[in-house]
Amino acid sequence: xxxxxxxxxxxFRKEGQNVTLSCxxxxxxxxxxxxxxxxxQGLRLIYYSQIVNDFQKGDIAxxxxxxxEKKESFPLTVTSAQKNPTAxxxxxxxxxxxxxxxxxxxxxxxxxxxxVL
Amino acid sequence: xxxxxxxxxxLSVFKGAPVELKCNYSYSGSPELFWYVQYSRQRLQLLxxxxxxxxxxxxxxxxxxxxxxxxxxxxxAQEEDSAMYYCALSTGNQFYFGTGTSLTVIP
Lengths: 117, 107
What we know:
Chain A has strands spanning 4-7, 10-13, 19-25, 31-38, 42-51, 54-57, 64-66, 76-78, 87-94, 107-108, 112-116. By secondary structure, chain A is mainly beta. The termini of chain B are far apart. The A-B interface holds A 31, 33, 35, 40-45, 48, 50, 58, 90, 96, 98, 101-102, 104-106, 108-111 and B 6, 9, 32, 34, 43-46, 49, 51-52, 86, 90, 92-100.
């Protein structure tokens, strides 16, 4: 079954703990993204990566960290520095082909709902 | 700065009525715009993109550079159109999403 998988679906953590969300894709996409989805705020970009071992901050990177050691994987760590970590987190991937915008369609995973108690 | 505005958080229409979901953008470059849809209990997925000028599930969207708009339209709404709709702007390496419009089609 091809696509993007995120695990776990639901995650509960105590305040002050770091937690890592998994995102894996077998679409052979170069780019991967992490978004946070909050009610009334749409999707906000946390981090993105266009190539292995390289990533850039999005609009709300503070309190988060990522790694991109493999093309297929882009885990997100929510650190204790993130003030409001309870949210729905979406991972996405896309082809990167400069000059051909139509292939920049993003494919989304099912999401992980993180609740910090 | 790149920004996408969807002024309506909630929109309700009766089945068979026309529907228009508004989207305005702010971008200094050449815009690449998309509409994404999220049906209940399903993943966010692409509905259509302006560059392909296609109609998907009866929906169309025309890019109006003068008004910086990319409104989504359908002449006759169906119950299965009820979903969350997001307008998105691509700058090539980043996407900027609007806050979304929740569409409810009333039987």
